[in-house]
Amino acid sequence: MLRGGFLLGRRLASKPNISALSRRPFASVSTDFSRLPKAGDRLHGFTVQRTKLIPELELTAVQLTHDKTGADYIHVARDDKNSVFSIGFKTNPTDDTGTPHILEHVTLCGSKKYPIRDPFFKMLQRSLSNFMNAFTSGDHTSYPFATTNPVDYYNLMDVYLDATLFPLLKESDFKQEGWRVGPEDVTDKSSPILFKGVVYNEMKGQMSDSSYLYYIRFQDHIFPSLHNSGGDPPKIPDLTLERLREFHHCHYHPSNAKVFTYGNLSLEDHLQKVNEKLSLFERIKINQELREPITLEKPMEVTVTGPIDPLMERSQQFKTSISWIMNDSSDVVETFGLGVLNALLIDGYGSPMYQGLIESKLGSDFTPNTGYDSSSSKKAMFSIGLQRVKEEDLPKVAETVKDILRKCHKEGFEQRKVDGILHQLELALKHKTANFGMSLMQRLKPTWFNGVDPFDSLAWEETLDKFKSQYAKGGYLEGLIEKYLLNDKHLTFTMAPSAEYESSLATAEAARLAEIVKDSDRAALEKQEEELAAIQEAAREQDLSCLPTLHAKDIQRELEHKEVSFSKVGGVGVQWRLAPTNGLTYFRGINVFDDLPENLRLYLPLFTDAIFKLGTKTRSIEDIEDAIKLKTGGISSSLHISTNHSNLDKVEQGLAWSGYCLDGNLKEMYELLRTVLTETDFDQPTKLNVMVQGMAGGFVNTLAESGHSYARLFAAAHLTPGGELSELTGGLTQVRLLSKLAATRDYSVAIDSMKKIAEFAGSKASLRTAITCSADARQANEETLGSFLDTLPVTKAPVPTAPGLGFDEATSRAFFPLPYQVSYSAMAKRTVPYTHSDGPALQILAHLLTHKHLHHEIREKGGAYGGGAFHQGNGGVFGYYSYRDPNVPNTLKIMEAAGKWAAQNTWTEESIDQAKLGVFQSIDAPISVNEEGMVQFVHGITEDMRQARREQLLDVTAGDVQRVAQKYLVDTPKDAITAIAVLGEKREWVGEKDWAVLDMSIDEEALKVPEIPELMAKVEL
Questions:
Q1: Order of strands across the sheet with 996-997?
Q2: Residues 6 or more apart whose Cβ sits within 8 Å of residue 629
């Protein structure tokens, strides 16, 4: 439902209409409140409505109205160089054809000032932005970007404004991005006629996600006045270009717009440039109706059907929820209170809803609509639901929810639980992220479009104080339960699994297709495809000089230095990063293992989850969770896998620990880390089963959302030791392992393995640590860290006594049958480590192939939602991927020929320049203070190595690109593996001789028969 776009514009020679009173310079730095405009000031066609200083967020907000059109504008002035822009429109959908979504795509395909094809993707190569995208939400559409470069900022602002207000909306773009029918392969007279279009295939992929499907069908019934803005594939073909253009005319107008800017750039400059576009319009009357959900006066029950999850057992696949209509979301204090109530009820493994619904085994996880939703409409909603419920248990779910609510109303909530939630909010304010402005925009926009005063949303401390005042009177949260939830005015919504669901979709699609093409001539459809292909091909050579651009010379050659120092505490190495942290300390530790037996390695991911869900013999997980909330901003444990920067066959593996807290809570944070790492009680098969069922229950939807990532992992597993470790511990091997555990419910091996891991997981024998804190907190950190390290054991991890599973040529061309209407694919080859001189050219090559070739072939011509190339600089793997792809055989042909195309292509200096800009977007993206110095700590890559690679990237030439394409993608050794992995519906092109077909399904027969390949069968349960 998202895709980005930009186009640039020229300045108009209109004079701003500013009163004499406002002819003074206005600063935009939040700390200088006195120099910001005041209510009534007029500048550049805008009138200031009000301003507000918000000290706790270190910002000042200014709200303005455009005099001529009525456009609403909020500027947030803050001392932050990562500036943000967004323009958005209220776009209530009138039906389920996906008009707002398709319009979002087509809008970005060319505009009046920039009449080139697909300027969004073109600007990705001409900018140093760290965020560029567009979002179609339920009732509004937004176009945001962020960049630290002022020239880039105004380039992109002009592009966005011209794209949204003056798009071309051409028929060819509508057919490419929206929908059309045509032969699958225009060169093959026998190829079938089918539906095509980027959005059409995107939404087929979305609807393959049963969680998304459940949420959409729930919305259909509780919120029928707000149609599916993304589009329902059966309805998308009802949309015409004329209706799309009319929707744009009515909705993409300044009178219906909300503009947001953020950062330390000049507000006056912003307004001047925005006014140049908006002043070309006249004010019109706009229907900005705030749609509301249904009114529930009595119990209502709805049941719909959905797909069967092949990765889970058949008897437990119902989803059900109970929902209430809540308060007016413009009451921000009550909304805040209901948010606290929501957290108390469902947040964490000790929460009453988790304990009563999931620990009790009624279901395995909450439904996607669970929780308090105050952003989707003016009227908020509250839902509690369960997935993987047995049919006979459906009535128990609603009754159990009501029993829990009645108990919470009667007994209330412990003070420490409320204090823990408020403490988390306090730390969230102190923890300054690098993308604060973008997060602020994404939080403000939904409620702003639904009538909530954005200044009320920003005034966090005022809202908190009012909440505390209400809470201090006693019974406030219990009163909210009584006011909204202790009644029978609710909707019970259930999705039942149907074995015929997928086939009925296919049958219905075939019938729609037959109806559409019955009066069509195949020759005419072939001609349409040929004409569209000609337009797409011509776009390769179009003149892009109208688009603004930065240049590689705008990239700093010197790496921004972040000083770190090193010491030893208790014999353990410590990396120190001393910087302003707002009273917080950030800790990381990496416990390195030389190697591990395979059975232990496979259960490391389960271990890192279990230690935060099981508790100890003396402390419940509820007690531990409460302490974590009260004393820290969170603690975690995860796998550590890092391929050596100079040798692809050398990989470091281990466990990483992390946490952050107020400087005064260091002792408590370390004690909590020690407790979960060394004292967790794994002899709890019942709790472990609940945890695994919840994890396994979401796999089919995770794969539907990120199938290309799993395909990449599986392909890379055949190429390097680091790739193999990543697949075994985070790829399809883990999916299969946990799915089998959930099906068999035999946890004896898992429990034994995790006990053995616990013996060395918290060891300091091979530990290194990193601390980020302020200079005045270093001494306290050294002392507390030393005390913590004194409590840790010195235990070496065991080493393997037999070979591991291994991936070989037998599985290097793998297909995973899954119930998706579109597919996900990846192809990968081994290349070079981080410090190798060819690495930078390969990174530039991946960017060039994505934007100059694969996007054009796989997305525009092939109809996939996404596709491209990648090079893992620190992993030594070059590859390709496609996402929600309707035509994998064609995609694989394109991938196989991509290297030769790149080696023979004549690359211009401009193309190389643009690729460098694209690569440095991520390299130079702002990072939070707790991430500074972490590349060296985690991967051993020093600043000198990063500086050398930076210079090599900036010095890459066209000849370098051609040379590495020929060397690594064309002239590969005969014994080198090119690994391919595909996830999706099995079709006729998947032959058993050509593919290793790896069955992921879980049923009685699959559990009896070893899977292919042998490595998956060898996974010990």
A1: 866-872, 877-885, 823-830, 979-984, 813-817, 996-997
A2: 348, 417, 420, 421, 423, 424
> Positive or negative, the Cα torsion across 514, 515, 521, 526?
negative
| C-alpha closest to that of 49 among 68, 62, 30, 35 | 62
Query: Degrees (nearest 5) of the Cα angle 268, 274, 276?
Result: 105
- Per DSSP, helices labelled H in 179-310 are 198-207, 210-222, 241-251, 267-278
Q: Is 582 left (phi over 0), alpha (psi -120 to 50) or beta?
A: left
CA-based nearest residue to 60, from 77, 43, 42: 77
- pLDDT recorded at residue 138: 93
Q: Which amino acid is residue 80, in one-letter code?
A: D
Number of neighbouring beta carbons within 10 Å of residue 292: 15
Which amino acid, one-letter code, is at 770?
A
Whether the Cβ atoms of residue 575 and residue 564 lie closer than 8 Å to each other: yes
Q: Strand 379-389 relative to strand 318-328: parallel, antiparallel, unpaired? A: antiparallel
SS3 300: strand
Indicate the helix (H) or strand (E) that contains 660.
Answer: strand 651-662
Q: What is residue 559's DSSP assignment?
A: P
Where is 662: in which H helix or E strand? Answer: strand 651-662
177: annotated active-site residue? yes
Max CA pair span of the chain: 84
User: Containing H/E element for 477?
Assistant: helix 476-484
What gap in Å lies between CA 210 and CA 505, rounded to an integer? 14
Cis geometry, peptide bond prior to residue 1013 (ω within 30 degrees of 0): yes
Q: Distance between CA 279 and CA 308 in Å, rounded?
A: 54
Tell how strand 180-183 and strand 193-196 pair up. Answer: antiparallel
d(CA 921, CA 555): 10
- Classify residue 14 by its DSSP letter: P
Model confidence at 382: pLDDT above 50: yes
3-state helix, strand, coil in the chain (%, to 5): 45, 20, 35
509, 517, 426, 508: which is closest to 465 by C-alpha? 426
CA 898 to chain centroid, in Å, comes to 28
- Identify the pLDDT of residue 314: 80
Residue 798 burial (10 A CB sphere; 0-12, 13-18, 19+)? middle
Catalytic residue among 56, 58, 171, 177: 177
How many angstroms separate the CA atoms of 485 and 106, rounded? 43
Catalytic site residue 104? yes
pLDDT in tens, 303-333: 999 998 887 778 889 999 999 999 999 999 9
From the candidates 104, 202, 598, 857, give the one annotated as an active-site residue.
104
The DSSP code sequence of 421-447 is HHHHHHHHHHS--TTHHHHHHHHHHHH
Q: Contact at 8 Å (CB) between 981 and 715? A: yes
Closest CA to 173 of 260, 264, 233, 103: 103
The answer to whether 120 touches 221, Cβ cutoff 8 Å, is: no
One-letter identity of residue 994:
D
For residue 114, the SS3 value is coil
In this predicted model, what pLDDT tens digit does every residue of 453-512 receive, in sequence order?
Answer: 999 999 989 999 999 999 999 999 999 999 999 999 999 999 999 999 988 998 999 999
**717-759 pLDDT, tens per residue?**
999 999 999 999 999 999 999 999 998 999 999 999 999 999 9
For 327, the 3-state DSSP assignment is strand
User: How many Cβ atoms are within 10 Å of 471's Cβ, its own excluded?
Assistant: 16
Inter-axis angle of helices 198-207 and 210-222, nearest 10: 90
Q: Are strands 634-643 and 651-662 parallel, antiparallel or unpaired?
A: antiparallel
The SS3 of residue 824 is strand
List beta partners, residue 643. 651
Interior angle at CA 610, CA 604 and CA 614, nearest 5: 155
Contact 891, 885 (CB under 8 A): yes
Cα separation of 339 and 908, whole Å? 55
Both ends of the chain: CA-CA distance in Å?
39
